[in-house]
Amino acid sequence: MTEVLWLYDPAERGQSAEAWAMYRELFTNGTKAGYIDLNDIGWNGDERLVRRNFEALWRIYAAAGARHLVVFGGAAGGEAAREYAELVPGAKLTVRRGGR
């Protein structure tokens, strides 16, 4: 099972820093984890490219032994989080709005 924490903020007010901090905490504590910021893995709003890159990054993290994934989904919450979590075999998804 892979724990997927999806953090989002409709206003996109810097919550990627909050997601990065969560990843760093896991990493610092010795937990094998990955971090993906959807805003960093696409180009010109190309959703197919974002999905392909997400899948590729997850495969790399999984091959390295990661069992946690922290994702900053930008403005995308609930439904998008579930769609992306389906790309992570055995994902246990937690969705949280940032800044709370």
Provide a concise account of the structure shown.
The protein is built from three helices and four strands, in the order βαβαβαβ. With 100 residues, the chain is α/β, with parallel strands linked by helices.
Give an overview of the whole structure.
- The chain is an alpha/beta fold and 100 residues long.
- The chain is 39% helix and 24% strand.
- It has three helices and four strands; from the N terminus they run βαβαβαβ.
- It has helices at residues 15-28, 47-63, 78-85, and strands at 2-8, 33-37, 68-72, 91-97.
- Strands 2-3-1-4 form a four-stranded parallel sheet, sandwiched between helices.
- The protein is globular, with a radius of gyration of 12 Å.
- The N and C termini lie far apart (27 Å).
- 29% of the residues are buried.
Q: Enumerate the strands of the largest sheet in spatial order, edge to edge or round the barrel.
A: 2-3-1-4
Low-confidence stretches: none
Spell out the helices and strands N to C: EHEHEHE
Shape: globular
Largest sheet: 4 strands, parallel
Q: What integer is the average pLDDT? A: 91
Radius of gyration: 12 Å
Approximate helicity band = 25-40%
What is the tally of helical segments?
A: 3
Beta content comes to: 15-25%
- How many distinct beta strands? 4
Structural category is: alpha/beta
* C-alpha termini separation: 27 Å
